[in-house]
Amino acid sequence: MTIDTYLEHYGYAAIRDDGKHKLVQLKNLKLVQIELSEDDSYTIQEVTQGNAGERWEDISIETVIEHIQMLEGGNDTFAKIWHVDDVLSINSDLSRERARLVLTMAMNNHDANIGINWEVLKEYIDRVLEMAAAGII
Is the pLDDT of residue 75 over 60? Predict the structure, then answer.
């Protein structure tokens, strides 16, 4: 997942975006500056009303997302991000496209009482393999 994918998926407004530097308005109207480094790490800092908040540097996309969620709702919001590579770690014979299909199916169809976990991903991998064998995909 990229920061652009996350922001677009959750409907955040990028006020300024030059590819490596983004100024994003959160849903609670706080402003956050997000920078992408050459080594694909991130820096994030709240800059609401021109007042610079704490700056977190050299962090992963998952940590950026955690900070966005914290800035929006405090420390009461938690999320697990599933990546195509997680699916491929279970079955490396899948293409990235089919691994994305596994995650899409899991996101759209999982039992909310169970959530998405390794067993759920295995189940959807099996479904994608069955669909491929049947010529559906």
Answer: no
